What does this fold into?
Amino acid sequence: MSVPPAERTVLPVPTGAKRLTVSEGAERRSGIAGAALLMAASLALVLTAGALARELGARYGAAEVLFLRFLLSLPVVAAAAFAMAGRRALSVTRPGGHAVRALSGVGAALIFYAAAQHLPFADLVALSYAAPLFVVLLSGPAIGERAGAASAVCVALGMAGVFLIAPPTRLEPWSLAMLAMAFLNAVCILATRRTAQADGPAATGLVFVLAGCLLTAPAALLTDFQMPEPADLPVFLLLGFAAGAAILLNAAAFRRAPAAVLAPIDYLGIAASAAIGFLWWGESPSPAVLLGGGLIAAAGLGTLWAGARR
It folds into this structure.
């Protein structure tokens, strides 16, 4: 998911052709059901964090909100990472990949937080889900994976959804910024695939949060940093907890079930964001946004299906 998805540590679970006994099949189904609940909880926390960040962004700078979110989520992520991997949580074998992931992921998150004050919440989330389309386009030159005909059709379908939400005839600067955010998220996803396979989810998640603190601190200090009002402190704490817990629940879900099972749950975020925008800020998504979001979700699921077939 993309609010922002850069923090997600996705490690696809291998699926083999081994025949299962009745008890093993029941255990597998129970595990998948548990993973689905973890994924749904992670999605809820990601959307909550996005909504809280948007609310705080009306009173504080985007860089400050992002810095405090990274800082306050660090204890949650660090405790889990050290519990999972001990000292190896700080051991990385591909520092260059982690640097690319951090720069692209933090840049994407900063764009999202800034754009949140200029676009409806449903538009923000729907456009952010265009990231998998850019993954397909970049996977060839970046990691040598060629997209097939089915993936190409899905990309075209998804781009049609993007153009419905942000028509070229009336593109706004912040709509273009969100497409840049989706592109940066795609770069981050491709970098995550390399770093997570080499270093594991604990190091991948912890290093990203640490890098986020370091990268956003100067920007926060240089853009009129102001101490949070006492009434906003619980909101910032909730933002940090939600962001950190979402990373952990997402990683736990993908350790229990394959991406093909969990991705459809993640794409419910497009519909959920429309409901949040309406209930929280009274925003009614236009038919173009609803249709465009549906096309983007269908395209994302289609690229996943095409990749699974390959």
In short: The chain has one domain: 24-309. The CA atoms of residues 56 and 105 lie 20 Å apart. The two ends are 23 Å apart (CA to CA). The longest helix spans residues 173-222.
